[in-house]
Design goal:
CATH topology of the largest domain: Thrombin, subunit H
CATH class of the largest domain: Mainly Beta
Strand content: 35-45%
Helix content: 10-25%
Largest sheet: 6 strands, antiparallel, barrel
Radius of gyration: 27 Å
Length: 423
């Protein structure tokens, strides 16, 4: 069975070293480490053409993390799509290639490279704890001209230092504005000049179709603003989050994603953000053609709240423990004085009894489950798991009223509950 692997992770020096030993003759990192002369437009090589003999040789392992002064940006201004016939006569590009270039030119300057530093703690012989520095790499998108950066929560989780590199190779320290582990979303902020911030254009994920093209841009293995192309393979997937909850309405894609792509944008054919790449299904931790992205509908709902409040305030039902039954979700215990208890919902009852044993009388307490309510639906929508119940409740706001359909001693009863404010 495939397991889900989050694609951020630490910087993999051994993997990079192997890449360089194998691909050294191809100058894989040349454009990031050495300013290349700009040839006249009439003689510019086609995209993807092999480098000339004058191209500098590939740098040593780790040189991709060189300073900004030693690198150049390959970001180019957006060029509008012209008539296919006219464009094809210039460079021999097909309409499909023109579309790919259009999406990259429009979106790549909105993509960030996020580098993190943290402290890794390891137990030695089960007693002593050692600390060692650790580094991580991920991707992000510029949200607005105020410097807010969108990324995955798991990219920056536990980080003590966060740096964001923009399209022009300028790096800025970032601070965490807000995080939502349930949806694996985090928002950072950098202090960068407005002319260096190119906000991503948000699209619409409500009308996506299986089979339409999807473009992922990110920083796999630290290779900045790499674009891969695929299709939307499926919609409405469910994905376990690190919080223990389940993320819903997830987009499945076959565009190649690897470590470092986490937090990067997923674009449609018009260069609009339709999702944020978050995970892959893999036994090895490398791309298998099964990737997952958080839909932009979730981002539109969560990101503004994180920017304003730093966290997502969720409504609270006041049910502290439930258990699965054949009929629905049994209520085991309630928060004392909480919304559900105030509305009359019932959980397990504690029965105190006096029992005589010989000449002595003891008081014993037993749990009576027979009178506990069983929740079957929320506002008419059936719930079959704890996650179903939480998802239904979190569609509401604190102070709103939900109608719980319950079974009480074999009879159907509706219980209206005014939601409170959660933690």
């Amino acid at each position: 069975m495939l397991k889900t692997s989050f694609s951020a992770g630490s910087l993999m020096n051994r993997v990079l070293t192997l890449f360089l030993l194998t691909l050294g003759s191809q100058q894989l990192f040349a454009q990031q480490t050495v300013p290349l002369p700009m040839p006249p437009a009439a003689t510019a090589p086609l995209p993807g053409a092999p480098p000339s003999a004058a191209t500098p040789s590939a740098p040593a392992a780790g040189a991709w993390r060189s300073t900004a002064e030693a690198r150049i940006s390959d970001a180019r201004p957006l060029r509008p799509l012209g008539p296919p016939a006219a464009a094809s006569t210039d460079l021999g590009l097909t309409p499909d290639e023109q579309r790919n270039i259009f999406v990259y030119d429009k979106g790549n300057r909105s993509v960030c490279h996020i580098m993190t530093r943290s402290v890794q703690r390891d137990a030695v012989f089960g007693m002593l704890t050692t600390e060692s520095p650790a580094e991580g790499s991920g991707s992000g998108s510029v949200l607005d001209s105020q410097g807010h950066i969108l990324t995955n929560y798991h990219v920056i989780e536990g980080a003590t230092q966060i740096d964001v590199t923009l399209f022009n190779a300028e790096t800025y320290p970032a601070k965490l504005v807000g995080q939502d582990p349930v949806n694996d979303i985090a928002v950072l902020k950098i202090d960068a000049p407005v002319d260096q911030l190119v906000p991503v254009e948000l699209g619409d994920s409500s009308n996506l179709r299986v089979g339409q093209k999807a473009f992922a841009i990110g920083n796999p293995f630290g290779l900045e603003r790499t674009m891969t192309i695929g299709i939307i393979s499926s919609l409405n997937r469910m994905l376990p989050a690190r919080s223990g909850r389940t993320m819903k309405a997830i987009i499945q894609i076959d565009a190649a994603l690897n470590r470092g792509n986490s937090g990067g944008p997923l674009f449609d054919s018009n260069g609009r953000l339709i999702g944020m790449n978050t995970a892959i299904a893999s036994r090895t931790g490398q791309n298998t053609g099964v990737g997952f992205a958080i839909p932009v509908a979730t981002i539109r709902r969560v990101a503004p709240v994180l920017i304003a409040d730093g966290k997502v305030t969720r409504p609270d039902l006041g049910v502290s423990r439930i258990y699965l039954t054949d009929d629905g979700l049994g209520v085991a215990s309630l928060v004392q004085g909480g919304p559900a208890e105030s509305a009359g919902l019932r959980g397990f009852q504690l029965i105190r009894e006096q029992v005589r044993r010989g000449p002595y009388i003891y008081e014993e307490t037993r749990v009576d489950r027979s009178k506990a309510d069983v929740i079957t639906a929320v506002d008419g929508t059936l719930v079959e798991s704890a996650d179903d119940l939480l998802t239904a409740i979190e569609r509401k706001n604190p102070g709103e009223v939900v109608n719980l359909s319950v079974l009480r001693e074999g009879k159907k009863v509706d219980v209206p509950v005014t939601l409170g404010v959660g933690d």
